[in-house]
TrEMBL record:
CDD domains: 7tm_classA_rhodopsin-like
UniProt-annotated location(s): Membrane
Protein name: Neuropeptide FF receptor 2-like
Record Gene3D superfamilies: Rhodopsin 7-helix transmembrane proteins
GO cellular component, one term: plasma membrane
Coiled coil, from the record: none
Keywords: G-protein coupled receptor, Membrane, Receptor, Transducer, Transmembrane, Transmembrane helix
Main location, first listed in the record: membrane
Keyword Magnesium: no
Transmembrane parts of this sequence: none
Family that this chain belongs to: Belongs to the G-protein coupled receptor 1 family.
Length: 379
């Protein structure tokens, strides 16, 4: 659901509408500035960290990088267009209106599809650990198809119903001009797509939870059968690490839903005439749901920085690299999985055999075993 689809629903007097907009102007530009600066910096860090750190180049991480690309597109196109529409006339003409404005829907839908793809990818890796996993090449191909197909299905057709017209805020803005019943059909179709994505993602993570519960039982039985307390302790640590990975993904999904779904539900309830709002109620409600949507574009970098140790380290390396600090040159190499295994290898010969046995068991069940090149750290 785009902001442009909802702004034309205002029916009350222009004077009251403009007065309310003026009162919210400072808060609006403060939020825009905060989201834009933090979002651009954070998403650049996410993309750079994943692309430059070899051990982070896995299927799930490439999908997360795709989320960052979609957020960058929204910050560079959708947010500036929203600001322009509230301070001046649309400056890009009819052609720009038809081709630029629909892109905000593209970025949002790509994010929805990508989150669904991450959930399905996690389910396949955990529920079917012995089956061949999708290669990085195929992941890149899937990402390219997501962008292409979504553009052909949503922004391209929407270009035919976009027009520059006078808005109640007093400016000429780019908005959708639907034929009779066209708006209702569009909102119902897009809402159905959103809720289908939500349902699929929730079902996939439910399957992940069931698979991890069964995995925990199998590994515990294997460890108990071999009668090694050291093995059981190491396996428990590995399972906790896998659980943290899934929790991180679930937090990203939940934050996305909490910031995006209110606008979708708001537009759907208005179109179905379930909500009957005054001008002030409409403006305040729209202000809240729109700015929740904008906050989503800077949320993922914050989540990754707070919850993922590997991402924090990658961010630090990127920042130090940009500052030209030679002390951090080669830092990703020091964090390689080979070096980590060497550092954690026991020194006593009798402990080394137990360590290698535990590694062999956990590798089979590890959530991080994403492709044939070996286990990789997931974020």
């Amino acid at each position: 659901m785009s902001s442009g689809n909802n702004t034309s629903l205002v029916a009350p007097s222009n004077n009251e509408f403009m007065r309310l907009l003026d009162q919210l102007q400072v808060a609006r530009f403060s939020i825009f500035s905060f989201v834009w600066v933090l979002g651009i910096w954070g998403n650049v860090m996410v993309i750079t960290t994943i692309c430059t750190t070899k051990r982070l180049r896995s299927s799930s991480n490439y999908f997360i990088a795709n989320l960052a690309v979609a957020d960058m597109g929204a910050l560079c196109i959708s947010v500036p267009m929203a600001v322009i529409g509230q301070v001046t006339d649309w400056p890009f003409g009819e052609i720009g209106c038809r081709f630029l404005n629909p892109l905000k829907d593209l970025f949002l839908h790509v994010s929805f599809i990508t989150l669904t793809a991450i959930a399905i990818d996690r389910y396949i890796h955990i529920a079917h650990p012995f089956k061949p996993h999708i290669s990085i090449y195929k992941v890149k191909l899937i990402i390219a198809l997501i962008w292409l197909v979504d553009y052909l299905l949503v922004p391209l057709p929407m270009g035919f119903v976009m027009k520059v017209d006078r808005h109640p805020n007093g400016y000429n803005v780019c908005m959708t001009k639907w034929p009779p019943k066209g708006r209702k059909i569009s909102i119902l179709v897009l809402s159905g797509f959103v809720f289908l994505s939500v349902f699929t993602t929730a079902l996939a993570y439910l399957g992940v939870g069931v698979a991890m519960f069964r995995q925990r039982g199998r590994i515990k039985k294997r460890a108990q059968g071999q009668g090694a307390a050291t093995q059981e302790k190491a396996l428990r640590r590995q399972l906790e690490k896998n659980a943290k990975t899934v929790k991180l993904m679930i937090v990203i999904v939940l934050v996305f839903w909490l910031t995006v779904l209110p606008l979708t539900v708001f537009g759907l309830l208005l179109e179905l005439k379930v909500l009957k709002l005054t001008t002030s109620e409409y403006v305040i409600s729209l202000f809240i749901v729109l700015h929740l949507l904008f906050l989503q574009h800077c949320a993922n970098p914050i989540i990754l920085y707070v919850l993922c140790k590997e991402m924090r380290a990658g961010f630090a390396v990127c920042v130090q690299g940009c500052c030209g600090n030679k002390k951090y040159e080669g830092s990703p190499r020091r964090c390689s999985s080979t070096q980590m295994r060497k550092d954690s290898m026991p020194t006593k010969p009798e402990q080394q055999s137990v360590y290698l046995a535990v590694n062999g068991i956990t590798k089979m069940y590890s959530i991080n075993h994403d492709n044939k090149r070996g286990p990789s750290v997931q974020v």
